[in-house]
Design the sequence.
């Protein structure tokens, strides 16, 4: 692992981005396992896939984390809302099958 300032070539940068992308995909897989479990629990207790209060809570958390990391909260919110929509679609698919 190299710090950004230690990367001297585009090959160095690309290798680090590829490493991070692999880690991000692994984290998305882990997050998806929790989404799948949430769908199973929601099915048992009769909750819908989309719970608007929770969506807004997740978005608020992401905005707070983005600000703490010096990232643009509006851009991260837009990206996260897509992730949330994808997650809800996955839960809805599970609930339809169940």
Sequence:
């Amino acid at each position: 692992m190299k710090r950004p300032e230690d990367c001297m070539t585009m090959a160095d940068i690309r290798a680090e981005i590829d490493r991070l992308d692999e880690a991000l995909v692994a984290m998305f897989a882990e997050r998806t396992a929790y989404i799948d479990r949430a769908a199973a629990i929601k099915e048992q207790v009769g909750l819908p896939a989309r719970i608007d209060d929770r969506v807004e809570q997740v978005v608020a958390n992401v905005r707070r984390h983005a600000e703490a990391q010096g990232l643009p909260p509006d851009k991260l919110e837009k990206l996260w809302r897509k992730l949330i929509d994808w997650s809800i679609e996955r839960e809805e698919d599970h609930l339809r099958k169940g």
Summary: The chain has one domain: 4-97.
